[in-house]
Write a structure and sequence with these properties.
This protein is of the alpha/beta class. The protein has ten helices and eleven strands.
Length: 290
């Protein structure tokens, strides 16, 4: 019978799609992690990954085991929970890096202080990628922006907070009040179009009838902000909560002249999963701080 450690090793490999990366997360050598995976497959009697010399791909048998194994681990970690006053166990969360610079970063810190026995593992990435990982079960939940498309029926998204979309530009040159003249002087640095935040930027441009001259395209709000600081262009980004916009000498912000557009950030999860007690606590704790 496989141990909980072996089952956790399997889940780590499904998240990272790499034995070596999973081994680093759980504190094993790559050889030991590989041996544990081999042991699990021998006990079950079937291979869980399709292997080539350079890749390891979860197959249909492996995907079918993710949720049952998550439930086993959740039940194990919940043993004695009725005797504890604090939330405990492990949750694997996908999170946009920009959300950690926004309101969720502060909430995450408070959550860890209130529940010291709760282990939160964060995986950085993009909202669209997190959706697939939540559906397949390699993530328990994810902090993502609101999807521009209808979500599958087996997942749900709960809004936690929202951030206004703003125009940012280098301290010089400065656009005239009530206008956006930077488009004549600098290129527009756009968030990647095919991402959820990219769709929101396009919506903001259309709603405000802005004329822009595209320059670079990136998939990082943080990188865009830094490039604007260096004077390489201007952009439209969400107003992250943990940035000292007013005291930034290299950066200026301007409210958009027309319709206000907001980036809504929330918790994406399957409607039924083994970590619902923790995701419920995250949502309640976060909403209570608003």
């Amino acid at each position: 019978m496989s141990s909980i450690k072996i089952l956790k090793n399997f889940l780590a490999i499904t998240r990272h799609k790499s034995v070596a990366a999973a081994a680093r997360e759980i504190g094993l050598t790559a050889a030991a992690a590989g041996q544990q995976l081999h042991q699990l497959e021998q006990e079950i009697g079937i291979e869980l990954f399709d292997r080539t010399k350079r890749s390891l791909t979860l197959n249909s048998h492996g995907r079918s085991l993710i949720e049952p194994i998550q439930e086993i681990i959740a039940r194990y970690e919940a043993l004695g929970s009725n005797l504890k006053t604090n939330l405990s166990g492990t949750i694997v969360l996908g999170a946009l890096v920009s959300t950690l610079m926004g309101a969720f970063g502060k909430t995450l810190n408070e959550l860890k202080q209130n529940y010291p026995e709760l282990e939160i593992k964060l995986i950085a990435g993009l909202s669209s990628n997190f959706l697939d990982q939540v559906i397949e079960g390699s993530l328990d939940a994810a902090i993502v922006t609101e999807s521009p498309f209808a979500l599958p029926q087996n997942v749900q998204w709960t809004e936690l907070y929202k951030e206004p979309m703003i125009l940012i530009y280098p301290s010089a040159p400065k656009p005239k009040k009530g206008s956006i003249s930077t488009d004549k002087l600098l290129p527009f640095i756009r968030f990647e179009r095919n991402t959820w935040t990219g769709h929101l930027v396009d919506q903001t441009i259309r709603a405000n009838k802005l004329k822009i001259q595209d320059g670079m395209e990136l998939n990082s709000v943080e990188a865009i902000i830094e490039l604007v600081r260096q004077g390489l262009g201007y952009s439209i980004v969400p107003k992250l909560a943990n940035i000292a916009w007013a005291s930034d000498r290299q950066l200026k912000i301007q409210e958009l002249p027309g319709k206000a557009i907001y980036r809504k950030v929330g918790l994406l999860e399957r409607k039924k999963h083994g970590r619902q007690n923790i995701t419920l606590a995250i949502k309640q704790h976060f909403l209570s701080t608003l």
